[in-house]
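Exam review. A common question shows you a sequence with its structure tokens and asks you to describe the fold in words. Practice with the pair below. Do the first one on your own.
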Amino acid sequence: MGDEDFKDKVLKFTNSKRIKPYNRIRLDLTFAQLINAVSLFYKISDKSILYKSDSKKENLPRKMAIYLCQKDLGYGLKKIANLFNLSKISSVNYAIKSINQISDINDIINKVRKFY
């Protein structure tokens, strides 16, 4: 699968800071497990994560699940929109951006991931 020089170059690149550790996809994780982990962490039902409520109140657990679907499962925007019954891909982008703006988000994400 390539000579040793090539393997060394690839290994150096993958260990560099160009690939962020949180962008690595978990092949052993399913969508159902992710939703269950988020619902356990926030102490809410799976249904309240999967379906948009009529209330104007922010649904942080739902946004967290959307974010983790992209980061941990590697799902694309369209697939995430379909899974969460969103009519627009821009809604997925908005959820991900709003999670990224939370100051202590890495601590929260790590706590949620402990439920996987």
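Now try the second one, then compare your answer with the model answer below.
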Amino acid sequence: MFISMLLIFICIFQVKIGSCNELNNTIVNNTKKDEYNFWQPTVGTTWNWILNNYGEIIESDSNVDVLDIDLFDNDESTIASLKENGHHIICYFSVGTYEDWRPDAEEYLKVPDLVKEPMEDWEDEYYVDITNPLLKPIISARFDLAKKKGCDAVECDNMDIYTVDSIKKWKVPITVSDQLSYDLWLTTEAHSRGLSIALKNDVENLVTMVNFFDFAINEECYNYNECKQYKDTFIKNNKAVFAAAYGDYCDYEFIKKLKKQTTGLELSMIIKNEDMELAKEYVKFDPENYNYDMLCNNENNIEYNDNISASVKNKPKILLLYIIIFAFILI
């Protein structure tokens, strides 16, 4: 009740009557959440994030419970196979941008003034006006596709565009209440299809949204001193926080910072390559048990996904073989 009243207060404060009515309706719909059955990942659930597999079929990985994969790049048979091997599947798609390579891209262009300026770091991706009601049928179709393909949950990206500086300069900017209303609508779309849904980043609204979202996904909270904010929100409610760090697992200063920011928080943290391509390679990061010397000198204290464990862990053996061959040649 408190959170509902808080949302209503925010809405009124923003003086957005249309948005306010929609927000209130969404809050009412979310009270029916218990009527739906969907997967709820708990604290400590392990994961990997594979949004770029370079056209290859994603393989099962016995080291993790969850695989977060692209909705459009993976077919029903791939998802079914991964689920048969014990994985829960999170399907990724964007809800705040237009991506010109997606199969439904033309649907965005049919709506006047829906597609806005390009994102700063992604030239082929453009922000969209989330207050345009004609966006919702497009996004609803994506939820339908996630359900059809057998996804257990969805990762809706770009659900905090109200914070973007260029959007704040629009003639009619996206407000906090606009964003909350839209994001709560997303939860209703997910839950009504039996899908759980992640709160992606948007740390500023963790307290407000924790009761409506089923788990969280965060990138680089360690860089902004934000990781600890999950402890009294999602972690306290036994909702998994899937966190990703970008960097070199043997970069001492990087690891030192990561440990400082995440110790005691029970985040499901993985280290991904610093190029941010989100390929299949990853390293599980447990701040309480991460032995830098053992890891980086001996490759003994690390858990990789099955696809790369052999090539990495066998480095010392391969090096020894080269030394023996070289010594034999000299003799």
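Model answer, second protein: Confidence is low (pLDDT under 50) at residues 14-19, 300-323. The chain has one domain: 2-290. Full marks require stating both points clearly.
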